[in-house]
């Protein structure tokens, strides 16, 4: 604990006052950076299944800095997990420079050596990114070159992926071309329709010495995309394929993978509509064929579902299934006019969203081969046919109304279906839940407000019904909140439990400090369909984040 | 013009790269195997299978291990350790407790206690920075020991167990013969007991292996029952070992529980480095049925 605390303080001190020193040393240029530290003291609490840890306190922290001088840029991120907060992968334990790079760029050429993040198109076949709150980082470590000519951007890279404190075994090579048709063809320069085309190709090399399977050492994926914009309308589509890639996540089958994502949108003042559809088949693409879970994804298949901010609405989030899903999402946003019966004096906005995700259709390749049998093509799949299993659905409607200059109210209803086996890996029963939320803001003085949030979740499955109430007070940069979460439980399976939690914080310019104390329930945190299980905890937490 | 030339060059290099970066595998996708190596004086490895009766992916991992045993025969000495969240006894039919103190201690030391299961471990050797292997990596890790290293082992282990039905106890003699000169180190021998053919429920999500979502009469094999000479074994040498040297250890009166069937029990023994750069790494393993 002593070591954790010392390291935490060192990094905290480093984040302040470093700008001036560095600017002097490096002679000009600019220094920007950010710092974040999340610390938690854990107390054992058997009522909610929370454990203490031998170190008593866990700290996750990073300090990131970028130096730019004309065309040159250099950056690094020091990270510390001593030990990692509960729920973060234990392989993060340690500290060091997890990210560092050198970069040179001018109008045409952009060269990076070291760590970098990159995304081709929607990320279907290549997306490297970092999500601090998930404990996720699959940055690439290698060389990237971008070359721009009129209307065209070409990107080429060769790198390995970050794997906690080391690198994954696979070598990633990729190229991407993005073409702006209107910029390329002079005649189309002022056309009302804007057209963008793109193509990307990514290959993974990994040595193979498996005694059972003939494994491909080079596995390639490619994708083509189009984006169209005209007035109030937009349309985006990407289609990708992947060659035979027997791996841990697809049970060593040799079938090629494919994916299609499409989106149509319409937007005008007071009205927005979008519909998205996707079909993904055997597209889990990683830089190590043996990896599963969070480890070393190269491609990214997003969950086509709304990401909810309210805690009970986010209780059963969908985990994207890169090896097979058919999904649809539609959203309608409509603003009722001011000074009408329905719209009220200040107007009312209505936001309706529906999403559903199903399995894909699978049938046997022949009578003697079971579906998904290792060392075979696995299965056949009818492209347009839905599978038998429903993975997730979410219908939600949110109405927001400004009642007066001081009062704002949001009401939300949500109905969710959650396939437990698919999303959490353990067996039935699946969850069907109804959720109601009332969110009220009262701005009683300038920069002074009270915020009341009431939530209830009703289900007969899993851990039963939940209710939550939160009262928050804001005064300029200061806030304090008390939250009471109550789990009614299911007799004989889960006992009821209260989760009281109090938090307060202060924001000053770009620095925020938050202190919290109390119980936090176990749950799932997802960002874009990538999910992490968080165990229950009880104790004191402290967060600091700052940028300069 | 200059720009166009650069552009063409970039495209040409990219095309070459695309063509060179893709291996299409044609059926059959499985390798044809050479006959299993016969004889007992061959290199054998210890395969630790971290598992649990509520782990839905574990039967698939067991299948992978069985497939490997078809290739390598008894050169793979398996010890299934039921550990962590997925091994906890629950309401029937998952009320059977497969867990052992030895399994818990081993899983805690090597990180399997909190890892998502299934996980494997070959010879307690670090691979890519960690001890634990995902299922798809089992084959390569096994091949790296049994195909890449010499067939002849560095140390040969001979097991001579006996069972006393009067008091349900086991005696075992372990003889270790050094076949190659070995570097200076501490050497330990661990002797464990495993049981196969335990019929109990197991969760499963792979229809190829059995019924989904559970197999009520699943055959649990190689289940670790306990450590005969303590969890981390006994030191038998400290220093360099010379070819021809041998060591004998005997352990007696190890009591077996009432529900263990002597005919399904096996003795598993393995020799490992207990310090130095190879600390914890298993050198050779052996397996012998009790009866």
Q: Could you characterize the architecture of this molecule?
A:
The complex is a heterodimer of chains A (548) and B (291). By secondary structure, chain A is mainly beta. Chain A folds into 3 domains: 90 residues, no CATH class; 183 residues, no CATH class; 240 residues. The two termini of chain A are 29 Å apart. Chain B has a domain of 189 residues: 3-Layer(aba) Sandwich (Glutaredoxin). In chain B, strands 6, 9, 10, 12 and 13 form a 5-stranded antiparallel β-sheet that branches. A 3-stranded mixed β-sheet of chain B has the order 2-1-3. In chain B, helix 2 packs parallel to helix 4. Chains A and B meet through strand 9, strand 10, strand 11 and strand 12 of A and helix 1, helix 2 and helix 4 of B.
The largest sheet of chain A, given as strand count, sense and whether it forms a barrel, is:
24 strands, antiparallel, barrel
- What's the multimeric state? heterodimer
Helicity level of chain A: under 10%
Return the CATH architecture of the domain at 39-153 and 190-232 and 259-289 in chain B: 3-Layer(aba) Sandwich
Instruction: Give the SSE order of chain B as H and E letters.
Output: HEHEHEHEEEEEEEEEE
Q: Which percent range fits the helix content of chain B?
A: 10-25%
What's the number of domains of chain A? 3
- Radius of gyration over C-alpha positions of chain B, nearest whole angstrom: 23 Å
| β-strand number of chain A | 28
- The radius of gyration computed from the alpha-carbon positions of chain A, rounded to a whole number of angstroms, is 25 Å
Number of helices of chain A: 4
Structural class of chain A: mainly beta
The CATH homologous superfamily of the domain at 39-153 and 190-232 and 259-289 in chain B is called Glutaredoxin
CATH class of the domain at 39-153 and 190-232 and 259-289 in chain B: Alpha Beta
Shape of chain A: globular
**Spans of chain B of 5+ residues with little confidence (pLDDT < 50)?**
none
Query: What would the principal axes of the Cα set say about the shape of chain B?
Result: globular
Low-confidence parts of chain A:
1-5, 7-20
